[in-house]
Write a structure and sequence with these properties.
Structural class: alpha/beta
Order of helices and strands: HEHEHEHHEEEHEEHEHEHEHEHEH
CATH superfamily of the largest domain: HAD superfamily/HAD-like
Subcellular location: Cell membrane
Number of domains: 2
Organism: Mahella australiensis (strain DSM 15567 / CIP 107919 / 50-1 BON)
GO molecular function, one term: P-type zinc transporter activity
Keywords: ATP-binding, Cadmium, Cell membrane, Magnesium, Membrane, Metal-binding, Nucleotide-binding, Phosphoprotein, Translocase, Transmembrane, Transmembrane helix, Zinc
CATH architecture of the largest domain: 3-Layer(aba) Sandwich
Strand content: 25-35%
Protein name: Heavy metal translocating P-type ATPase
Largest sheet: 7 strands, mixed
Radius of gyration: 20 Å
Helix content: 25-40%
Bound molecules: adenosine-5'-diphosphate, magnesium ion
């Protein structure tokens, strides 16, 4: 029993670069009580830049970067792209015998006779690699070769230009804003603080993001809906679970576009405001 006017709303939205997969989602957008955001690629540009390469004893900088780039050569993660870009040379003829991406942690690759790990502390701990604790700003990618720590690479990301304004406008509408991220606590805290988010949860694995989302859904008032906005890298399960899953189109993977209810055709996170605005205008026409 979706009023016919909602079909017009879908057309209006599509002209604003917002793909809405059904009138029921447009209706639901009128009752959003909370917008939950992924961090990397959603609130931040996700275009990381390598800012430091610190090899362990017995390894040089170029070798560390080459190993990391080779390990990341099959990953779509923004972190992987930045490491490959920093290496800046072709990665051809790699003898990759095994490749595994551990969502929210990093990658494990068997390259010739070497097993390479590139990822966060959780990944190192998972494989029992002893490593120093690096307390520096940025995302730290630890690298290990055959179970031995080989060094780290620091990568920095930037907050999107339209993120702060988006959060401010949502809050003015009485909508709660929360960030979920797999990234480290200090980085999450800094981003949440700068954007004035109502809340954030850090160091979450993809499954834990779903759990948090369900908890936030339960905290809503009766009839309120929860929207989740993500770029789809590591967050397709959350996109699918939210009342309204919103995927950012340009960076988003096919899996994300499939799992989402609403697709924003570009990387402007502020388009979520356009989606809500379209829903409100449509509501007025329908009534
Ligand atoms: P977010 O929730 O901020 O979008 P993800 O869940 O995609 O972040 O990833 C969480 C963390 O997992 C990253 O901050 C990084 O430490 C690690 N990670 C994930 N994929 C990779 C990869 N391909 N290479 C190195 N580290 C990775
Ligand atoms: Mg992400």
């Amino acid at each position: 029993s979706i009023p016919l006017g909602f079909f017009g709303g879908i057309g209006a939205a599509s002209r604003r670069g917002i793909l809405i997969k059904g009138g029921n989602y447009l209706e639901a957008l009128n009752h959003v009580g909370a917008v939950v955001f992924d961090k990397t690629g959603t609130l931040t540009k996700g275009t990381f830049k390598v800012t430091k390469i610190e090899p362990a004893d017995g390894m040089d900088r170029d070798e560390l970067l080459r190993i990391a780039a080779a390990a990341e050569s099959h990953s779509n993660h923004p972190i992987a792209k930045s490491i490959i870009e920093a290496y800046g040379r072709p990665l051809e003829g790699l003898d990759i015998k095994a490749y595994e991406e551990i969502a929210g942690q990093g990658v494990r690759v068997v390259l010739g006779d070497r097993e390479i790990l590139a990822g966060n502390v959780a990944l190192m701990d998972r494989y029992g690699v002893k490593h120093p604790m690096i307390d520096e700003a940025g995302t730290i990618v630890y690298v290990a070769v055959n179970g031995r720590y080989a060094g780290y690479i620091i990568i920095a990301d930037e907050i999107k230009d339209d993120a702060a304004e988006t959060i401010r406008k949502l809050k003015n509408m009485g909508i709660k804003t929360v960030m979920l991220t797999g990234d480290r606590e200090p980085i999450a805290k800094a981003v949440a603080h700068r954007l004035g988010l109502d809340g954030y949860f850090a160091e979450l694995l993809p499954d834990q993001k779903v759990e948090k989302l369900e908890q936030l859904q339960k905290d809503l008032a009766v009839g309120q809906k929860l929207a989740f906005v993500g770029d789809g890298i590591n967050d397709a399960p959350v996109l699918a679970r939210a009342d309204i899953g919103v995927a950012m189109g340009a960076l988003g993977s096919d899996a994300a576009i499939e799992a989402a209810d609403v697709v924003l055709m570009n990387d402007y996170v502020s388009r979520i405001l356009g989606a809500i605005d379209t829903a409100r205008r449509t509501q007025r026409i329908v009534q």
